Amino acid sequence: MFTRAIVKPPCAAMINGLTGSDLGSPNYDNALRQHSEYVAALKSCGLDIISLPADENFPDSTFVEDVALMTPDCAILTRPGAESRTDEVTSMAPVIEDLYEAVESIKAPGEVEAGDIMMVGQHFYIGLSARTNQNGAEQMIAILEKYGMSGSIVSFEEVLHLKTGLGYLEDNNLLASGEFLSKPEFQQYNIIEVPQDESYAANSIWVNGTVITPAGYPKTKALIEAAGYPVICVDVSEFRKIDGGLSCLSLRF
């Protein structure tokens, strides 16, 4: 169960955020409204919210998930593979250090963004991507093992981050799309296949028994409900334009 979440509203500079999308520039006012609705959804799932001020120095800084991995026993500050995001970790560090007694960090030449890390109990799947390299993944696994947890490396090719195509819903249920449907390491789970035309909805999040899913993907919503979960839909379309999703917008712990 989660008790708290760290969030950071988007800054006006988000229109300059990193993206490989052809969906156009985000509308800042709409993004603020959507972020507020997202926070309300987290609160409705019982989370206390730690809301940090928007930071105009970092266009992508609303995606707080990427800069730290929060586990029950320690927090691990990452080292983002996107150079423009490196100093986001520095600005987040004091917040994390106030919340955790044990804080570790990834060192150069390692690169890790936590959007590439999926937690399943005490095990963490770490995807190799343009933002997470082998050295960073190996450092992450060594730190996890130091605290009695475990990790394994997953390769993929088709999406930005591991959790772009996966969402673990607890109780052995795994949302998956595209290339992840046939990955051997995930066949032990009950795979809920996200339709290809709704692949964005694979990035849904389980929060204390409820699943928060992006609005506008009715087939995926129905599949999640059929698996026995109450569902909250939140519009995050403005964040999708800069390659962000539901999991990216909070650090839940």
Keywords:
globular; L-arginine/glycine Amidinotransferase, Chain A; alpha/beta
What does this structure look like?
The chain is an alpha/beta fold and 253 residues long. It has a single domain (4-252), classed as 5-stranded Propeller (L-arginine/glycine Amidinotransferase, Chain A), CATH 3.75.10. The protein is built from five helices and 15 strands. A three-stranded mixed β-sheet has the order 2-1-15, covered by helices on one side. It is globular and about 40 Å long. The model has no long low-confidence stretch (mean pLDDT 97).
The total count of strands amounts to 15
Rg is: 17 Å
Mean pLDDT: 97
> Any idea how many domains?
1
Just name the CATH architecture.
5-stranded Propeller
Set down the secondary structure blueprint:
Layout lengths: L3 E4 L20 H17 L3 E4 L16 E3 L4 E3 L8 H14 L3 E3 L11 E4 L2 E6 L5 H13 L3 E6 L10 E3 L4 E4 L13 E4 L11 E3 L2 E5 L3 H9 L4 E4 L2 H4 L10 E2 L1
Parallel strand pairs: 1-2, 4-5, 7-8, 10-11, 13-14
Antiparallel strand pairs: 1-15, 3-4, 6-7, 9-10, 12-13
Short description:
This protein is an alpha/beta fold.
